[in-house]
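Q: Sequence in, structure out?
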Amino acid sequence: MSTTGASWYDVLGVERGASTEEVRAAWRSGIADLDPSERRFRLLNQAAEVLLDPERRAEHDAALAADEPADEPAPAPTATPTATASRLPLVPGWALVVLVVLAVLSVGAAALVWAQPNERVVASASGGNEIEESAEQARAVAERAVGPVLSYDYRSFDESTAAARSYMTPAYQEEYDKLVAALEPNLEEVQPVVEVDVVDSAVVRTGADRVDVLVFVNRPTLRKGMDEPEVYKDQVTLRMVREDGRWLVGALSTNQLQE
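A: Exactly. Output:
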């Protein structure tokens, strides 16, 4: 965001020396009473994406330091900060699993829109409330699932996709399998290897046997001819559905940051 206005620290309301736990707590507290469609909700998520990533936080700190004269105090926050990171439209989660080969396949995807009537927003489960405890269980499964669902290796593609399916509802498996079938013939040509590292997560919405979990991930992606992987930074929303006593991924969408 613009270093001549508010910083990401100002957005979250924390000091520049705030610890990771303080940043995380401010983020979760900030989004607790907001609707995901609100600009403030998206802005808080952008701030957390930067400040919870050590490398990006260091770059942000350096930019702030370079922009401040030595004899003047830090600039005051502005009401409407502007983000430098532009975002792509929401796409179906199964499209992300093979994002690395989309340039080859030219696969298009429509935006995924979820109807969310009469929902309760939850940022964390600090109390003993049954709904919040259930939401935290769903969040824990979402953190475990996002890696297998979004990562794969062309050398062990069948094993990778089988692991991903084990976290999905039968309905979502059908959507996932459609793209997998289309991509298999191109794997040897592109030779993709995709990994996923979870940065942080939070519960953003709950309902009857359904919880939406927001997860920040780094996604190192290696393709044929590359010496080093390209790291994508994604904000992933997983819709967790409880079926037969298990939390499973029923849908997935993402916002990918363009550096």
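The chain is about 40% helix and 25% strand.
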